[in-house]
Amino acid sequence: GAVVSQHPSWVICKSGTSVKIECRSLDFQATTMFWYRQFPKQSLMLMATSNEGSKATYEQGVEKDKFLINHASLTLSTLTVTSAHPEDSSFYICSAPYRLAGVVNEQYFGPGTRLTVT
Amino acid sequence: AQRVTQPEKLLSVFKGAPVELKCNYSYSGSPELFWYVQYSRQRLQLLLRHISRESIKGFTADLNKGETSFHLKKPFAQEEDSAMYYCALETSYDKVIFGPGTSLSVIP
């Protein structure tokens, strides 16, 4: 079945450094992928839409220069948190819509990446 | 404005009792609504969607456009139903907006 993977599952970095998180769709192609962040005991907040072959579209209030998104292929999107600060510590989750005959059948979610910035 | 609300942050019920998790939405277009569930230490997974009108694990949800609601119901709660439940709205361009979630605890 369709699966979405994320790497790494958790990462600790120092303040000021950059961190890259990968999201891969396994066994299916995804021209769009979505990135969410989830703070403890809170819901998923949509950050941006990753578009294969074009620029990502960001939700209001999300800094595009801080959260760089690259959709390099039909199965891979990366989120780079640049110059990370402790307030960027969160759970980052990606999703990819699985389409049948061009219609979205279901959104599949990755297991998430726990980022801790010290 | 596109929004999903879930008024209950926490809901506790006894095993065997009926469960209703409330969800209301705000969307100007034709809504596509879903319920997602997240069990402890597991990834988010789809529970059901309104267009298929299916029953999964005994849960059902009916879309009420007049009340802009999509409440999730189950007649007899089981301990394994304890989880975080998110109501979600799929908007144009396949974006999914989540409600704040309801943590369901089923007491043995």
What is the residue-mean pLDDT of chain B, rounded to a whole number?
91
Distance between the termini of chain B: 40 Å
Count of DSSP-assigned helices of chain B: 0
Following the backbone from N to C, one meets helices and strands of chain B in this order, namely: EEEEEEEEEEE
Sheet with the most strands, sense and barrel status of chain A? 7 strands, mixed
Task: Please give the alpha-carbon distance between the first and last residues of chain A.
Answer: 37 Å
Number of strands of chain B: 11
CA-atom Rg of chain B in angstroms: 13 Å
Q: Which shape of chain A, going by the Cα principal axes?
A: globular
Structural class, from secondary structure content of chain A? mainly beta
Q: How would you describe the shape of chain B? A: globular
**Over the alpha carbons, how many angstroms does the gyration radius of chain A reach?**
14 Å
Q: Show the largest interface.
A: A-B, 19 and 15 residues
